[in-house]
Design a protein that fits this description.
The chain has helices spanning 13-19, 45-54, 74-93, 112-125, 147-158, 173-178, 186-194, 226-236, 247-257; strands at 4-6, 24-28, 58-62, 98-102, 132-135, 167-172, 199-201, 204-205, 216-217, 240-242. The chain is of the alpha/beta class. The protein has a single domain (4-257), classed as Divalent-metal-dependent TIM barrel enzymes (TIM Barrel, Alpha-Beta Barrel), CATH 3.20.20. The strands form two sheets. It has an eight-stranded parallel β-sheet with strand order 1-10-7-6-5-4-3-2. It has a two-stranded antiparallel sheet with strand order 8-9. The chain is globular and about 45 Å long. Zinc ion binds at residues 135, 172, 201, 243. Zinc ion is lined by residues 135, 172, 201, 243.
């Protein structure tokens, strides 16, 4: 059975998840735009862990957006690795199911192959007490995980990198569409590359196919046929998070269109 829940910004995540009758929720541990150490909603990891367990809610943690372990700039790559390790440890301390991190990019003057090598080094070195789920991104010529070609290159680079713990994949539907990937049949095409889809970020897109723009929209408010999104979720069978302006409405819509979803 597919579990569908909201991405939660400032609210307390457990009541927010209970409010949409969700058994899955996603949130940040601290400022998503910053470099600070992880912070827990309510302030205490143990209390949050207990509250999640008591409410039977599984948590996914989204890493801060600044993290870019692909970067060829030491002043970005090294703090990115450090913060990614801290976020993984913090996610584990609340019993989270996984930590989602974007694929990152290199700057225009750098060779993309160096970015993939940097990813391999990061995977080899960073301790993963919970699965680290790499998310596909929407745009940028120098991005590591834009489109399935990028994801395939990234998976080639990190295969055999070793390192402690699992690496998985988070499929964002808006990002895939914006990157120019057809969504019909995409689940099989992704699994042929990564072997797994741990989480779906189910977002419609405000922009056209292949736009490269990352602007999420509600299920019935975007340029993607919402029936295609429902088909994708059925095919993936993974937990689903709506990162949309009104996740409660979108969760209702998806539950009404996907048999057995909760
Ligand atoms: Zn996403």
């Amino acid at each position: 059975m597919v579990s569908i829940g909201p991405h939660v910004h400032d609210e307390d995540p457990v009541p927010a998840a209970v409010g949409t009758k969700s058994h899955v929720v996603q949130f940040f541990l601290g400022d998503p735009q910053g470099w600070a150490d992880p912070k827990f909603p309510g302030g205490d990891a143990g209390a949050l862990r207990d509250a999640l367990a008591a409410a039977d809610v599984r948590a996914f943690i989204h890493a801060p957006y600044r993290i870019n372990v692909a970067s060829t700039n030491n002043r970005i790559r090294i703090p990115s690795r450090k913060l990614l390790g801290q976020q993984l440890a913090a996610a584990a301390s609340i019993g989270a199911q996984g930590l989602i991190v974007h694929g990152g990019h290199v700057t225009a003057d750098a060779d993309v192959s160096e970015g993939y090598e940097n990813w391999a080094k990061a995977v080899a070195r960073i301790d993963r007490p919970v699965p680290m789920l790499i998310e596909n991104t929407a745009g940028g010529d120098q991005a590591m995980a834009r489109g399935l070609d990028g994801v395939a290159r990234l998976w080639d680079a990190i295969a055999g990198a070793g390192g402690p713990g699992e690496v998985g994949f988070c499929l964002d539907t808006c990002h895939a569409f914006a990157s120019g990937e057809e969504l019909s049949g995409i689940v099989d095409r992704v699994k042929a590359v990564t072997g797994r889809i741990d989480l779906v970020h189910c977002n419609n897109s405000r922009d056209e196919f292949g736009s490269g723009r990352d602007r999420h929209a509600g299920m019935e408010k975007g340029t993607i046929d919402p029936a295609v999104l429902a088909d994708l979720i059925r095919a993936a069978g993974s937990p689903v998070i709506c990162e949309t302006p009104d996740p409660a409405a979108d969760i209702d819509w998806l539950r009404a269109h996907i048999a057995g979803a909760s």
